[in-house]
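seq as requested:
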Amino acid sequence: MRDAVFLLTMAGLLPIAVFRPFVGVLLWCWISFMNPHRLVYGFAMEQPWAAAVFAATLLGCVLAQEPKRPPLNAITALLVAFLACITLTTLVAAGDPAQVWQKYSAVSKVLLGLLLTGALLTDRWRIHALIWVMVISIGHFGVRGGIFSLVTGGNYRVWGPPQTMIHDNNHLAAAMLVATPLMNYLRLQSRHALIRFGLAAAMALTLLALIASYSRGALLGLAAVAVTLWWRSQRKLISAAVLAVALAGGITFMPPQWMERMETIGTYQEDGSAMGRLELWKISWQLALRNPLTGTGFTGPYNQAVVDTVQPDGPARAVHSIWFELLGEQGFPAAFIWLALIVTGAIYAQRMVRLAHGHAELRWAHDLGRMSQVSLVAYLVAGTFLSLSYWDFLWTLLVVIGAAHVLVRRALAAAPEPVSQRAAAQGWRPRGWRTA
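struct tokens:
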């Protein structure tokens, strides 16, 4: 039944994407983030839906003569530079060629899709719609996982959709952590009380699902997010009380085995998993030092022959760190560009907060800038322990920030100058006065 509903949905939306290309962008993001085809059975499960949607969207851009202008900002420029870097590292990659080119194909398609996405984010409402799709895509698993945790008493881990980047409980927890501040942005911007209440409930369930994932890295990320929210809040005492109650309630709900696992954070030297990750980080660092300009290419740290060049018989598998994964696979130049993407996004977000302050019509940008910064903190902290360097959700958020920053600057440039500022520029004498 689910596969039939999904097929009918796609059959109805794909033609719309041909005539309304931004609908194609929303559909492409939904397929990429939520992976609804992995939640059905039969024929629909294995079809290349993302490629079909992308092709329909490109056709729509030609027919609708969109976009009108290329997406020019520092975020999109850095995405192009990153694409150039990974192309070079792929040409000289040390790993298995089939695996290398397969991963390069997937990542490069995402980057090209992001450039198209940035070009079509031409107004506030499109940005708002895309954030809704992002929140619904990840929030679905948060709400479902929270309800599952309530029913089972938190005795079982929450997992993501199979055969996706967020299937692992740790990856799903990081995704929910990054998406939660965006839920709060939508709550702040929603006019209807019912929608605001629904988003608040979704945030609470997502928080419970995050805790019930049993992810230690996500718990550290949650602590960083709580501190950031408290620091950015205007009413720090109230914020501290609300955050403390929410976190204490979620932690108290969990069974004893959850607490036993979380306690290993303080005794990581005795935990085989934690020590294994440190070993993998060391190997990736050595690979980066051995190949500083190009790294080992995609999947290099997964290849035993490549790992043996720096540590014979060392573990060859997922690095479990956004920082060391980039260094080991792509080298220092690409890692620098990747980091510059995130730093630029944070700077743009802060500029939006500052520029939109005091402008009621730009309140949306003010709230988006604040919540985006929290999402970036969540990604950097939780991602320190995960292989999520090439996560399309995070890159899409950066593209959204870049497009919103452009819209804010255009809005302020087109706004009439306040009377007080005009008077100050003219001096203290009213117009019409003459000096002798």
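The first helix runs from residue 2 to 19.
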